[in-house]
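During the reporting period the student researcher (J.K.) took over the structure-prediction task from the postdoctoral fellow and processed the backlog of single-chain submissions. One of the processed entries is reproduced below for the supervisory committee.
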Amino acid sequence: MRFPYVISENTREAYTPSLTALQLTLEQRRKTFPERLEWGDKHCYSLTRLCIEAISKNFANQPVLKEVYGADQDLLLEILPTNLPLEIVVPLIDEEIYWKRRYNDEFGMVSQRLYPNWTWKQVFIERNIQKLVEQAEPQYNDENDMEAVLKLCCPYVKRILITQLQMWRPPLHWEKSEYPENFPLHHINFEPILKQLTEIQEFDLVFGMNSVGDKFCWEMFKFTPLDCSRLGAALLNLQNLQILRVHRSNLEYKQCQALIQGLMKNRTLAELDLSYCEIQNEGALCVAKLMIVHPVLEVVKLMYNKIKQKGAEGIGYALLHENCCPLRVLDLRSNPLRHGGIMGILRALVRVDKPRELSLGGCIAEDETPVRIAQMINLNASLEILDISANWFGEEGGELLVYYLTNNKTIQWLDVRETDITIEQSKVINKILRRNRAGVDCLSEDEEVEEEVVATEEIATEEVTEEEEEGGA
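J.K. obtained the following structure tokens:
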């Protein structure tokens, strides 16, 4: 007896009797065991089952699916081999049970974020395309041999996540005398790939290699402006592209400039993520130029990019420009902006109504910076989320935050962790933020009491944790 695929394996596990239960007297007297689905495995199968097994074994030569109906088709999909060529199964099979089995057999557990309205067929095909791209060898121009499979999979690929790219290696048929003195640093050309995958909405790329072991060398993580120039030109083929991430890579100014040049003609991009790279000031200025010319860009993430005052001032200038994109989120965390760079952003925030969310955490605020941030909060009427964590404010800076935040009605979330303000100041700030989220002028007495109870519980929890840590020490 087969276990229906529509029932979760967890359900079967939950209803499986324990060894102790099986030893009970009443259990020994039972003659029927409906929960044991394997009772009929040694029995002769029905003629229908044998026919379906024959169809399954010969499916590659004679794909018959639509001619099989109902429960028989479900059984066929449950036993169909998961190594059939994509040319056969992609246009023929849409049922989720087959694609779920195929994904689990080839890739195992899903280890990536799933988007709304996803299907197992889409997830498997996207992961299969990822595998092809990540294993493509640039010295053989493997990208030019993918046209057939890319064209077949195009309607189902909405997102592609590339976690590594192979570096150039000498072809196997070359003699050592033919090796160049310095190996090329360029990778595969994305233009023939993205020319076929025109339905992509999210493109995520990391230049580097995974699990290299003792074969590690720095060349594995280097790439050239030519790579980014090709990528920028290839992205023009994606008329539905909304999210672009090139992160955790050695992306420097020249590579960033080549990439941004290709994005100048794009009119659909809503999110640009260049976090954990090294674009520095010059790269930030390139991004600022894109912000001025792009019509729909809403999210820019540039954390951990070694951006300093000049780059921040360029972004601030872009925010002030009349043609600036409708920016909603700006993330500049962990960049050494210091006071001058932070001021370049603050000057824009007191004059424009964008962005709605700003992160300046860990930007090395200096002595005068807390005063200017507090004054910006007083004058700004558009920010809803502000992150100033991991910056030195101290008790005096906390007083300024409390004083000016009282007049602000728009900020709903303010991250002040690791700013060395007092606990009392933090409680007052939380109360003001709660008022803003409620959209009222002041909180009622019941809400104030509830806020105090929550704060007291948090303090008590912290004290208990500190005592346990001291006891453990």
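The committee noted the following: Residues 445-472 form the longest helix (28 residues).
J.K. will present the remaining backlog at the next meeting.
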